[in-house]
């Protein structure tokens, strides 16, 4: 079975079941996590479409959920929203938003006057 890692987007080929300690060979992210589960849904209660699942707080960490089914984690990658916003802005002829750099926000917050 092939899937994509939610953390780095690498294609991961898995033969057999996903163990709780199975990690991505590229970035070492936990694969048996909510972010890689096909039931994960940010709009659902506890971000899970499975009503009988236990509540998991850390969605990107390994967990012991018995209802885990491997899904495509690449669709949940961080930073995806900026690409979508820029594509929408381009559609309406607006300039792309500059990438937010956390250091710029920190410098602005602690800038000496």
Give a description of the structure:
With 113 residues, the protein is mainly α. The chain folds into 2 domains: 1-78, no CATH class; 79-113, no CATH class. Helix content is 18%, strand content 5%. It is built from 2 helices and 2 strands; from the N terminus they run ββαα. The chain has helices at 80-91, 102-109; strands spanning 2-4, 11-13. A two-stranded antiparallel sheet has the order 1-2. A hairpin with a 6-residue loop joins strand 1 (2-4) and strand 2 (11-13). The longest helix has 12 residues, at 80-91. The chain is extended and about 50 Å long. The protein starts with a strand and ends with a helix.
Provide the structure class. Answer: mainly alpha
Q: How much helix, percentage-wise, in residues?
A: 10-25%
State the domain count.
2
Distance between the termini: 57 Å
Radius of gyration: 18 Å
Write the layout of secondary structure elements.
Elements: E1 2-4, E2 11-13, H1 80-91, H2 102-109
Antiparallel strand pairs: 1-2
Which key features would you list for this structure?
mainly alpha, 2 strands, 2 domains, 113 residues, 2 helices
Compact summary:
The protein has 113 residues and is mostly helical. 18% of the residues lie in helices and 5% in strands.
């Amino acid at each position: 079975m092939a899937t994509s890692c939610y953390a780095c987007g690498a294609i991961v080929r898995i033969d057999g079941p996903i163990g709780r300690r199975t990690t991505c060979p590229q970035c070492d992210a936990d694969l048996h996590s909510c972010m890689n589960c096909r039931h994960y849904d940010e709009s659902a209660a506890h971000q899970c479409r499975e009503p009988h699942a236990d509540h998991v707080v850390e969605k990107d960490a390994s967990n012991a959920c018995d209802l885990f089914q491997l899904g495509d984690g690449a669709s949940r990658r961080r930073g995806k929203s900026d690409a979508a916003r820029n594509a929408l802005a381009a559609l309406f002829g607006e300039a792309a938003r500059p990438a937010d750099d956390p250091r710029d926000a920190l410098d602005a917050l602690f800038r000496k006057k």
